[in-house]
Amino acid sequence: EVQLVESGGGLIQPGGSLRLSCAASGFTVSSNYMSWVRQAPGKGLEWVSVIYSGGSTYYADSVKGRFTISRDNSKNTLYLQMNSLRAEDTAVYYCARENRDYGDFRGFDPWGQGTLVTVSS
Amino acid sequence: EIVMTQSPATLSVSPGERATLSCRASQSVSSNLAWYQQKPGQAPRLLIYGASTRATGIPARFSGSGSGTEFTLTISSLQSEDFAVYYCQQYNNWPLYTFGQGTKLEIK
């Protein structure tokens, strides 16, 4: 079964750091494009970052320079290192695989269950 | 940035009736549009990609249409499990994906 399980969320003070993990099963993280998407409480979805199978990374302007996406191939796990956290980073963070068919995007599927990050003093 | 605008914000429909949700892009995204369903406390679920192609396992009552800047998600005969929030997403400007703000489909 193809599955993603996030962990690492919690309560953190403004300016602090946190690392989220996303463990995959049923497929290989390093062979896929993997994204982080977040959702602030009661709000919509916001794409955060992606890592391509070749290793290239991209970020939303709102997190550029503060967040770093990476992966550990031996653990088949995706990460999001979040530094200099702000109150507006408070959200549920989802990891998701990009479904691709011959390189064409076919939607985010599957998604993990999400992990809540709360930035507050 | 491509801005996605969904309407209405809330749609009240009775079970068994048809629901029509709209999504507009601030510039053309061709057919590079996906739809997701999200229920409370759950992750989003992929419904449609390529504006009109149903994802694996999605019932035929869900259909998508449109291209360019105007898109529609239609649910032909609402079932109780269909009441949820629906999001559109453009991927024409990948990897700078953007989502609409969502339409809440509620029971009338």
C-alpha-based Rg of chain B, rounded: 13 Å
Largest interface, with Cβ-Cβ < 8 Å? A-B, 20 and 25 residues
Instruction: Tell me how many strands of chain B there are.
Output: 11
State the secondary-structure class of chain A. Answer: mainly beta
Q: Helix- and strand-based class of chain B?
A: mainly beta
Order of helices and strands of chain B: EEEEEEEEEEE
For the sheet with most strands of chain B, the description reads:
7 strands, mixed
Main β-sheet description of chain A? 7 strands, mixed
**Fraction of residues in β-strands of chain B:** over 45%
Task: Briefly summarize what is shown.
Chain A has strands at residues 3-7, 10-12, 18-25, 34-39, 45-51, 57-59, 67-72, 77-82, 91-101, 104-111, 115-119.
Set down the secondary structure blueprint.
The complex is a heterodimer of chains A (121) and B (108).
Chain A: E1 3-7, E2 10-12, E3 18-25, E4 34-39, E5 45-51, E6 57-59, E7 67-72, E8 77-82, E9 91-101, E10 104-111, E11 115-119
Parallel strand pairs in A: 2-11
Antiparallel strand pairs in A: 1-3, 3-8, 4-5, 4-9, 5-6, 7-8, 9-10, 9-11
Chain B: E1 4-7, E2 10-13, E3 19-25, E4 33-38, E5 45-49, E6 53-54, E7 62-67, E8 70-75, E9 85-90, E10 98-99, E11 103-107
Parallel strand pairs in B: 2-11
Antiparallel strand pairs in B: 1-3, 3-8, 4-5, 4-9, 5-6, 7-8, 9-10, 9-11
Tell me what you see in this structure.
The complex is a heterodimer of chains A (121) and B (108). Chain A is an all-beta fold and 121 residues long. Chain A is 0% helix and 56% strand. Chain A contains no helices and eleven strands. Chain A has strands at residues 3-7, 10-12, 18-25, 34-39, 45-51, 57-59, 67-72, 77-82, 91-101, 104-111, 115-119. In chain A, strands 2, 4, 5, 6, 9, 10 and 11 form a seven-stranded mixed sheet that branches. Chain A has a four-stranded antiparallel sheet with strand order 1-3-8-7, with no helix packed on it. In chain A, a hairpin with a 5-residue loop joins strand 4 and strand 5 (45-51). The termini of chain A are far apart. Chain B is an all-beta fold and 108 residues long. Helix content of chain B is 0%, strand content 49%. In chain B, the strands form two sheets. In chain B, strands 2, 4, 5, 6, 9, 10 and 11 form a seven-stranded mixed sheet that branches. Chain B has a four-stranded antiparallel sheet with strand order 1-3-8-7, with no helix packed on it. The radius of gyration of chain B is 13 Å and the shape is globular. The model of chain B has no long low-confidence stretch (mean pLDDT 96). The chains are: A mainly beta (121), B mainly beta (108).
